[in-house]
Amino acid sequence: MKRIAVMTSGGDAPGMNAAVRAVVRKGIFHGLEVYGIKRGYAGLISGEFERMELSSVADIIHKGGTVLRTARCPEFKNPKVQQEAAELLKAKGIDGIIVIGGDGSFMGAKALSNLGIPTIGIPGTIDNDIPCTDYCIGFDTAVNTAIDAINKIRDTATSHERTFVVEVMGRDAGDIALAAGLAGGAESILIPEVETNLDVVIHRLQQGQKRGKLHSIIVVAEGVASGFEIGKIIEERTGFDTRVIVLGHIQRGGSPTSFDRILASRLAAKAVDLLLANEGGKMVGIINNKIVATDIDEALKQKHTIDKEMYELAKILSI
Ligand code: F6P
């Protein structure tokens, strides 16, 4: 292994830069040549490679987004395109590649591995929905961003005695909603992994009001329904003055938390070690604070699950 490449792919996530930095610096430490591929699989197809030096990744550890840029690239699902990409990598003498991204990016990584390019996936998505790791890069920062917003919403909600519905991201996963809802003290948390019963939500709101609660916050994951739909139903059925806020892409930006920076650095270092050992077709993850490698196939086969105990706890504490 002499020359490796790194890219970020799919939705950006805070901490991706810390991961790129760690791949470049750890790679160079071991005497490897490291290339950055711009704009994920789109840049791979169009040959946007750039030699990375130690200084290329200076002053980025604290920055959100990704200096390599990123893209969603549906064309890469096409086996012909995958074959061409593998040939291009071989022609450029790239011996191994590290892909930082979510499940779509991992499918591409698996395809490249099957075509003889040792490829390692690093889970980077605010959705936290990749199996075989407790955390994905970006999730912690996104949750902190959501909590910061909820804290502010709580101030105005209390002053006006209002109900707020806060819609958070997560695609089909409820991790951000659950963590932000628990840490933000939400009255109800609606996630796709648990069937939503709006009668229960409304009953809890009414009970809260009887007890003298000045405001209520309901966190809804985008995978359940639009916050506006939920807010409309709640207002119609309770008569409570209700407002809706969609946090949206704000959750994808911002300086990564120390947790995400450290996680990114550790996962990236392991990814480089795996390539040095000539291993491909793997993803790296953190399980019980240990950095581990799992076959990408295995991760793609498993279904993402939510921490049900945490969900039940949030219900008890929000009474
Ligand atoms: O996968 C990350 C994510 O932010 C999801 O939470 C969200 O559903 C999606 O990406 C939004 O994608 P886009 O930025 O392409 O609109």
Notes on the protein architecture:
There is one protein chain. With 319 residues, the protein is α/β, with parallel strands linked by helices. It folds into 2 domains: 3-138 and 256-301, Rossmann fold (3-Layer(aba) Sandwich), CATH 3.40.50.450; 139-252, Phosphofructokinase domain (Rossmann fold, 3-Layer(aba) Sandwich), CATH 3.40.50. Helix content is 43%, strand content 18%. A 7-stranded mixed beta sheet has the order 3-2-1-4-5-10-11, sandwiched between helices. It has a 4-stranded parallel beta sheet with strand order 7-8-6-9, with helices on both faces. β1, α1 and β2 (33-37) form a beta-alpha-beta unit. It is elongated, with a radius of gyration of 21 Å. InterPro entries: ATP_PFK (IPR022953), ATP_PFK_prok-type (IPR012003), PFKA_ATP_prok (IPR012828), Phosphofructokinase_CS (IPR015912), Phosphofructokinase_dom (IPR000023), PKF_sf (IPR035966).
Helices and strands, with pairings:
Elements: E1 3-8, H1 16-29, E2 33-37, H2 40-45, E3 49-52, H3 79-91, E4 96-101, H4 103-114, E5 119-123, H5 139-160, E6 163-168, H6 175-183, E7 188-190, H7 198-210, E8 216-221, H8 227-238, E9 242-246, H9 258-276, E10 282-287, E11 290-295, H10 296-301, H11 308-317
Parallel strand pairs: 1-2, 1-4, 4-5, 5-10, 6-8, 6-9, 7-8
Antiparallel strand pairs: 2-3, 10-11
Helix pairs in contact: 1-9, 5-6, 6-11, 7-8
Order of helices and strands: EHEHEHEHEHEHEHEHEHEEHH
Largest sheet: 7 strands, mixed
Number of helices, counting only DSSP H or I runs of 4 residues or more: 11
- The N- to C-terminal Cα distance equals 57 Å
Mean pLDDT across the residues is 97
CATH class label of the largest domain? Alpha Beta
CATH architecture of the largest domain: 3-Layer(aba) Sandwich
The percent range for helix content is 40-55%
Total count of domains: 2
The distinct ligands, each listed once, are: 6-O-phosphono-beta-D-fructofuranose
Question: Which descriptor suits the 3D outline?
Answer: elongated
Strand order of the biggest β-sheet: 3-2-1-4-5-10-11
Structural class by sheet pairing and helices: alpha/beta
Strand content: 15-25%
Q: Looking at CATH, which topology of the largest domain would you report?
A: Rossmann fold
For the secondary structure, the number of strands is 11
> What's the alpha carbon Rg, rounded to whole Å?
21 Å
